[in-house]
Amino acid sequence: MSDRAKTAVASARFGMGLEESRAASRTIRKSAADRAAANLPHETARLTLGWEVYRRWLDGLPGGCLNIAHEAIDRHVAHGRGGREALRWLAKTGDRRSYSYADLKAHTDRFARLLSDLGHGRGARVFALLGRVPELYVAALGALKAGGVFSPLYSAFGPEPVRARMTIGEADILITTAADYAKKVAPWRAELPSLRHVLIVDGAGIDGTIDLAATLALTEPAFELVATRPEDMALLHFTSGTTGRPKGAIHVHEAVVAHHATGRLVLDLHDDDIFWCTADPGWVTGTSYGIIAPLTNGVTMVIDEADFDAERWYEILERERVTVWYTAPTAIRLLIKAGAELAGRHDLSRLRFMASVGEPLNAEAVLWSQDVFGRPFHDNWWQTETGGIMIANFAALDVKPGSMGKPLPGVEAAIVTVDGEEVALVETPMTVGQLALRPGWPAMFRGYLHEEARYAACFKGGWYLTGDLAMRDADGYYWFVGRADDVIKSSGHLIGPFEVESVLMEHAAVAEAAVIGVPDERAGEVVKAFVTLKHGVEPSETLRKDLLGHARKRLGAAIAPRQIEIRPELPRTRSGKIMRRLLRARELGLPEGDLSTLETVA
Length: 602
Prior knowledge:
This protein is an alpha/beta fold. The chain has three domains: 3-52 and 254-485, Rossmann fold (3-Layer(aba) Sandwich), CATH 3.40.50.12780; 76-87 and 94-252, 3-Layer(aba) Sandwich (Rossmann fold), CATH 3.40.50.12780; 487-588, 2-Layer Sandwich (GMP Synthetase, Chain A, domain 3), CATH 3.30.300.30. The protein has 20 helices and 28 strands. The longest helix is centred in the N-terminal third of the chain and has 17 residues, at 101-117. The radius of gyration is 24 Å and the shape is globular. The relative contact order is 0.11. The model is unreliable at 1-24 (pLDDT under 50).
């Protein structure tokens, strides 16, 4: 069946089942004060804003050059804002450090000079295998100042995923800890001839490595930032395939135009904000919105070294007086699981804007946040490949819980069908098709490293095909249906996992849900759901039957899960996405594929 034919089947299905959950009564209306205070006057923005306007918001460099680190740090110092607090680091131990923009300039200048002294200049591949420590942020921006390419690796990776990424990326230099070097790099280092230097942040005397702190102390602090061009490679982010090797998505210095604009317009950052992005820089969110966007917008960013803990998070929000908070749906669901009472013990009145990314945010989580915090989480959509936020619930827009929102001014999005090489627009509201973007935005990836054919396959008919199925309603809001590979085909229906999961999460007992298709002789596939429960709720056969009845009542017998399994945890990546394909593989006894990004073994 062609994609166009599948869409015809699917649209008949989705247009009905989602309507009730998207009723106008659930829309969260923004007040006149909220609309007036927002950075994006959305009613007129599409006529006045776009990429050329966003480029003028940055300083740039002489001769049409552009460098991310200059826009994030040096320009603030040049404009007399060097004394502002840029980075507030909270250690696991309770220690804390504060860095002004002038401090960051000095530290990153020195690191860039060290790279230069070691012979690593324009185009050098600088990899970081570190937790959320100050050295990581200095290395990222210092590498960009030196004209290098920065590639972050998640610190919890084992030896094989580290080796694969550094080999594909042809790493020139690595910054890491003594323990991670010994366990994850040293055993195979001789097999990677491009790796010339390893900088150790917390030790000395390790053969074949450099003590970073001691060497920096002897390094001249002055450095003249390399005037990179907008199309010069700046960032290399790896994204895992289901079974294949990791893909290295290439991003360039011009991506900063989108990082800055979306920080301002989507996250509604003002220069007096205290901003906390909980994502680790080992993932694209933690780099784009945990480093670049907040710093280019001149805010104070909070960095917490520790892993998720609900009590600790609420304490940070209260004590650090966080005003803008960007986190993942998984974290939100874990907060729901911990209970609203815990949130009520803390003064969170300084919070004025909250956003979420990583996977779709269920409507019930949005409504929960409105009840508990007095304001909603604003979902937005983007990918590693897009480099920055493309579609969002903006501060000045009414929020439709469960919706991805509307495209950023300058982004051309569409719902399309694909039949061979032919791409056709889907005009009818609430009709399922593939989400597509018109290429050309500054943060768009410029390729998969060494995989030209894989990159070319992402584009057809003048569109970038995202691989996500979605719908657009009559008001221009976009609604996520599911990854094309996740859609379940049952008795002629195409069933999006997200819809079924959202309905299950409406049940008072459910914290998280994941849905897969399992083989069935008559229907082809039927829906099986896995759920975790909220804090204090005990699993039972009675509850399981109640969940089945709830789903059947809301979705109908043809679409509701035939089976529901209650679990203590669900497998998800360290960036927060539930791994449906792993649930499917384990259920059907199939190969599990790449598990390098797995966080929870369940």
